[in-house]
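One such given next:

>
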Amino acid sequence: MQQCGDYLTFVRMNTKRVFTIIKFAEILFFCLFGFIFMSAQRPIKKDVVLSQIKQIDTYLRETRGYLHEHPELSGQEFETARFIQDEIAKLGLPVTKVPGTGFYVVLDTHRPGKTIGLRADIDALPIPENPENLKQVKKHISQNKGVSHACGHDGHIAILLGAVKILNELKSQLNGKIVFIFEEGEETNTGIHAMVEALRPLKINAIYGNHLKSNLNTGQIYIQEGAIMAGTGTVAFDVVGRGGHASRPDLSINPVFAAANVLTGISIAWNNQRDVTKTVTLGITQVQGSKIYNVIPDSVFIGGTLRFFDLNEGEKSFALLRKVSEDIAQAHNCTVKFHEKMGIAMGPVENDSALAKFTREAVKEIYPDKVVSGEQYIWYAAETFAKYRELAPTIFTFVGIKNDDLGSGAEHHNDRFDLDEDALQYGVGAMVQFAVKFL
C-alpha cells in the first residue's frame, strides 16, 4: 500500500511538472507570436509616409505629363486604361475590369480588417487646349486634337497610382483590403453605375476620393463635413403649339410666346415659391425654335440644369418647374412635353461627418498647416462620386493647384486650365494618410 501511495504521489508531482512545462511553452509561444504580430503592426509614422512620397515625386510628374498629353473622351479611355493597367501589372496586383473602360484593383494584406476604396476618374473633355495657361506656355500640351484634360483628371490618376505604389510597399504593416477604383466617364456619367454595381459585393467600409481645385492654393487640402459639391438635374422639355406662316399668327398657336412666358413664370416662381434658405440654381442654357425667320415652329425646346445641395429641395424644385410650365403653356393653348432625361441626374457629394473629422485629423498629422475648411470653397459643379454613398460612408477632398507665378488657376473646363505639379504630392499624402490611419 505504501508503495502504491508513493507511486501516486510521484505521478501527481510529475504530472504537475509536465502541465507546468506545457503551460509555459504555450505562454512562450503566444508571447513570441504576439511580439512578431505587434512588430508587423506598429503604427506607420508620418516620416515614413513623407519619405515614400518624396521617392515617387518624379514618377508622379512624369505620369501626369504623359496622361495630359494623351487625353481620351468619356467612354473611350482605351489607351488610358491600358497605360494604368500596365503600371498596376508591374506591382503584381490583379485587375478586375468593369463593363466599359473602368476597372478596379484589390490590394489584400491577407490579414483581417476593414476594406476601403480609393477612387480616381480617368476621362478628359472635348475642349481644344490653349497652349498657354494664365501666364505662360504650359509644360504639357494635349497631342489629341480637340480633347484635353481641362479638369485635372490626369492629376487624379497620377495621385491614385502613386498611392498604389506606396500602399503596396507598406502592405506588411496594414490590415484588411484596399480597392483602387479607376472610373470611366465621370464627365458624362457613363461609367459610374456599372462601377457601383461591380463594387457592391466587396462590402467596402469607406470610400475616399479627391479633386484638384483651381481656386485653392497649391498644397491646400479642403476637408469639410456635409455637402461640398452640388447635385445636378437636367431641364429638357418642349412647349408644343401649332406651326404656320409668320404672316398669319392667328392661324397658328405660337409656342415661342408661350415659351417666353414659361421662362418668365419660372423665374418669378423661383423667387417666390422656393425655400430661400436652401440654394438651388436654375441655369437655362437653350431655347430652340424655328430656324427660319418667317416660319412659326410647332414647338420650342427649353434646356438647362438645376444645381442643389439638398436632394429633397432639388426634387421640389423640379416639381415646381413642371407645374409652372404646364399651367402657363395651357394659358396659351399649348402643351408641355417633358423629355425622358428631365429630372435629377446625380445627388450632391456629401461627406460623412465622422469620416470628415477623422480624415482632417489624420491629414493634419503630416500637413499641419495645409488643411482648410469653410463654406467658401463649396463647389457648384456636380460629381459622380456622389453615387458611391450607396456603398459606404464617403469622404471627398479638394487639393489646391493654384500658383500665380506658374500661371495655374484658370477655371475648370477652360482651355487655359493648368495645374501646379507640386500639388500631386499633397494629393498622394492625404490619400495615403487616410488609408494607413483607417486600416
Remarks:
- Residues 29-40 have pLDDT under 50 and may be disordered.
- The chain is about 40% helix and 20% strand.
- The CA atoms of residues 154 and 344 lie 28 Å apart.
